[in-house]
Amino acid sequence: MLKGFRDFIMKGNVVDLAVAVVIGAAFGAVVTALVNSVLMPLIAKIFGVVTFDNFLAWGDVRFGVLLTAIVNFVLVAAAIYFVVVVPMNHIIARRNAKLGIKDEEPAVDPQIELLTEIRDSLRSRTN
Prior knowledge:
4 helices; 2 strands; 3% strand; Non-ribosomal Peptide Synthetase Peptidyl Carrier Protein, Chain A
């Protein structure tokens, strides 16, 4: 029983997942700091408030809290896109150009190709 557990824990997928979770948590702290320390203060300078929590409030119903969460989500998504995705795509494109790797269309399954030919042939007979 313990050998099976050890084998499960030592599988590459489990170790990779554990590393990804730890790195994701650390990166999450960086993105949160970027949003809270840089982007939200800029928004506060533009709009005069850091959060929209009291915006559209009727008693206990506060739509501003939802608006603040949506703005935070969009800021986090934008930060990840512009800080991680765009530079990584640029680095990958430069590496591929340096190595002479061209973007190829994915290979089509021969069965799908054959079925497409049969379909097109049948369509041409009926027209």
